[in-house]
Amino acid sequence: MNSRDRAGPVVWCGIIAVTCLLLILLEHTLWLAIPFIFGTVLYYILLAPMQRLIRAGVGQDLAALTVGGGFVAVLSLVLVLLFSYVAVPEESWQALLGHYLEGGVTFVRNTMQLLEKEFPLLEQMHLTRLVNRRFKSFTDNFAQQHLAGLLVVIAGWLPSLLLAPFLTFFFLRDGASFKRFLARAVPNAFFEKTLFLLHEVDQTARRYFQGLIKLTVIDTIMLALGLWMIGVSSPLALALISAVLAWVPFVGSVAGCIMVVVVAATDAPSNAVIGYGAIGVFVAVRLLDDFIFMPLTLGRSLQIHPLMTVLMIFVGGSLAGVAGLMLVLPLLGVVMVVGETLGCLVTNARLRARHRNAMALRVRQASVGLSK
User: Fold this and answer.
1) pTM (2 decimals)?
2) Looking at 136-140, 318-322, 324-328, which range is the least confident one?
3) From CA 134, how far away is CA 27, in angstroms rounded?
4) Closest CA to 286 of 218, 213, 212, 230
């Protein structure tokens, strides 16, 4: 009988409890969790070409080194070509950034003035004056404080992120050896189920990251289509960047929305409808993403019910913040496979009997020839 058919309410309570505990622990080891995730994504991207090399007769170590080196070479070539063909802006990057910041500030200022006209109470509170003062302080100190702080944060995360390619290489080279190492420690009676468990954990992680790629493609298409319809420039590039930022739930979505609205407001400063339309498009796509696309891609790829997917996203956010939002679904998928398989082992009387008989036989063999 399939382990999923044997999983009952007790097993699922244990799965949810263990997932919540892991979320709390990973919140305090985020410096290791983030490069581990990036390394796992690269591992599943490079696994297929490495397996082709192994089937062609190439050794495990050489195949991992070849695939890893080829990926680094291709990535370096793409970056060189990108920087070679991207047009250099007529104004400096600092002036260009200031231009977009000014467009965003103007959009917010116009919005505040419209709100004051509709709601006299806001005018009495001098909302526009307060917002102008805050934005002026932000833009004046952006380069000295905010940008410097952002660079410090990036520099602090850089050593941790450099772990990702090293983790990917060792996943490729030693992944099969690690699985054999774990299998040798399992009693013979549970050997087949252990192999099944390792295979299912691997397939669950692979399905999750494949679902993540599908979700990114869907978000890019939907958002690009909406931005193109309202007349925002470079809709495909903005949609792709926003979809990738959405890998970090909430924070990434807010950053993507701000970027899209600032570009729309700067491109059409005299037409506020485009800026408001960009907000509407982004909110609509995010709602579709959270309640339809994500359950049907990530939730289905992990074979989790859509209702459970949505509930666990909220649980992950409440327990571990941004890290919980990002890690809850892959953690739930892996813990679900492990928990359901262990639940099947515990409730399988035949497997337990085989293990007891094997232990008794081992004791009799060890005691042969011993004097009484």
Assistant:
1) 0.65
2) 136-140
3) 32
4) 218
